[in-house]
Design brief:
- Chains A, B: InterPro entries: Class_I_gatase-like, Peptidase_S51.
- Chains A, B: Belongs to the peptidase S51 family.
- Chains A, B: Keywords: Dipeptidase, Hydrolase, Protease, Serine protease.
- Chains A, B: Its EC number is 3.4.13.21.
- The structure is a homodimer of 235-residue chains.
- By secondary structure, the first copy, chain A, is of the alpha/beta class.
- Chain A has one domain: Class I glutamine amidotransferase (GATase) domain (Rossmann fold), CATH 3.40.50.880.
- The first copy, chain A, is built from 7 helices and 11 strands.
- In chain A, strands 3-2-4-5-1-8-9 form a 7-stranded mixed β-sheet. A 4-stranded mixed β-sheet of chain A has the order 6-7-10-11, with no helix packed on it.
- The longest helix of chain A has 13 residues, at 48-60.
- Chain A is globular and about 45 Å long.
- The model of chain A has no long low-confidence stretch (mean pLDDT 96).
C-alpha cells in the first residue's frame, strides 16, 4: 500500500531543514531505521555528499540514519532494498535526468507503489506527478523524457505562489503558467503552497498543513481546497 | 550583416505593447514595409491569429504592416522572403517546439545571419542564445532539442529579476538558478532587466535601455555592465 508525503518545500521561512514536518515523518518512517536519500537534484549545485550530510543531520533529530544513493554501486538494488526513501529538492531537470541515466524510474515507481515509505520535497515532489511539466525550475539540462513517476494521477506545482498584485514585473504569474500548461495538457495540477503537503496512503490523498491548496483542472476555473480535504477524485 | 534587437520584454510596466522601443524599431525596420510575425510562443495560450492582431496593431503605430507566419503554406519560404522578422514572447518551450516542428531553426538562423532585421522579445529573445536552458518558462511541452539559434555566443535570461530580500518564499532566486546552470554548462548568460535590450549589428553587441545588465560567466563572480557597453567579447 502506497505511503507517501509529497511536500511543497523542505523548509518553511524562519525554521530549519524539515523542522515543520518532523512530526509527520516520525509516523511515515516509524518502521525504518535507515532512509535512502536521493540527492540528485543538487540545490545550488552542491555535491551529492554535501547534500546527503544535510539530510543526515536533519533526520538524526528524529533518530533516523540517512544514506546517499550515490554511495551504492547498484542504485536500482539500493532502491529495491530501501526501508524508506527521501528525494530532496533542487533542480527537477537535473533530478529527472539522473534518474533516467541510472535507470531508476521504473524501480522507484514500483518500489514506492508496493509500499516503501517515500518523502519528496519540492523537486522530489514534482517527480511524484505525471510529468515535470509544471516544475518552476530552469531547464539547465535536457532529460531524455519529461515523464516522471505518476504515483499520483495529476501534476504537482510545489512552492505555489499567489499573484503579487503590487508587482511591476511583466513575467507571467504562476497561475498564467499553469493555464498555459492546460492549453497543451489535460491532467489536473495541484498548486501546493509552502508548508502544505499531500499524504498518500493507498488510494487516499489528503491535503495537510495549515494552508489551502489551489486546484487547476482542465477547462475549469481554478479553486481552493482546505487542509484535510480528500483529493483522490482528482484525476 | 546581422541586425537584431534582443529585448528583455515586449512591454514595460505602465505602458503599451512595444511602446518603449518604437524609436529603435523605426530604425531597425526602416527598409521594411511588412514584418513577418512569429506568434508561436502564444502568451497565455492565445491563438496565433489573436497574437498577430496584437502585433499588427502595435506595429501600425510606426507605419508597418505585420503578417503572421501561420498564414503561409510554406513557412520556411516565408522566412527566406521576409523583409523583417519579429518573434513575440510567451512560452519558450512552445515556441521552440513549433520552430522544430515546422523545420524553421536553420532557415531562421541563416536568414537573420545574412542580414534580415530581427526583433525578439522575451521568448523571442531567448531563442537568439545558444539554448533555451536559461528561460524562466514552464516546460509545458517537450521540444525535440533545447538548442536554439545561437545568433549570439551566449545565453539570454530575459525579465531578469534581482533577489527580493524581503521575500519569505523559499524558491530559488534567479541568480541561484543561473548559478545552477553553470554547474552543467559553460556559456555566459546575460541577465536582461525589463526595459533593456541588446542591439546586434554585425559583430557588435551593445547593451541599450536605461538599466544595467547582469553578466554571469562560468567560474566568475557575476557582475554588472552599464547601458552602452560593448559585449562582443563575451563568449
Amino acid at each position: 500500500m502506497k505511503n507517501l508525503i509529497i511536500a511543497s518545500t523542505s523548509t518553511v521561512h524562519g525554521s530549519g531543514y524539515l523542522d515543520y514536518i518532523f512530526e509527520e515523518l516520525t509516523v511515515l518512517f516509524k518502521d525504518a531505521q535507515t532512509i535512502l536519500f536521493i540527492p540528485y537534484a543538487r540545490p545550488s549545485g552542491i555535491s551529492h555528499n554535501d547534500y546527503t550530510q544535510k539530510a543526515k543531520k536533519a533526520l538524526s533529530k528524529i533518530g533516523k540514519k540517512a544514506v546517499g544513493i550515490h554511495t551504492f554501486k547498484n542504485p536500482v538494488q539500493a532502491i529495491k532494498d530501501a526501508q524508506a526513501i527521501f528525494t530532496g529538492g533542487g533542480n527537477t531537470f537535473v533530478l529527472v535526468n539522473q534518474l533516467y541515466k541510472n535507470n531508476l524510474i521504473t524501480a522507484l515507481k514500483e518500489t514506492v507503489t508496493s509500499g516503501t515509505p517515500y518523502l519528496g520535497t519540492s523537486a522530489g515532489s514534482n517527480i511524484c506527478g505525471l510529468s515535470l511539466k509544471t516544475t518552476n525550475d530552469m531547464p539547465i539540462v535536457c532529460p531524455p523524457s519529461f515523464n516522471t513517476l505518476g504515483l499520483v494521477p495529476f501534476n504537482i506545482n510545489p512552492h505555489y505562489l499567489d499573484p503579487d498584485t503590487n508587482s511591476k514585473h511583466m513575467g507571467e504569474t504562476r497561475e498564467t503558467r499553469i493555464k498555459e500548461f492546460h492549453n497543451y495538457n489535460t491532467p489536473p495540477v495541484i498548486g501546493l503552497r509552502e508548508g502544505s503537503w499531500l499524504h498518500v496512503i493507498g488510494n487516499s490523498i489528503i491535503l495537510k498543513g495549515d494552508l489551502k491548496a489551489r486546484i487547476f483542472e482542465h477547462n475549469k476555473i481554478p479553486y481552493e481546497v482546505n487542509s484535510g480535504t480528500q483529493l483522490n477524485h482528482i484525476k
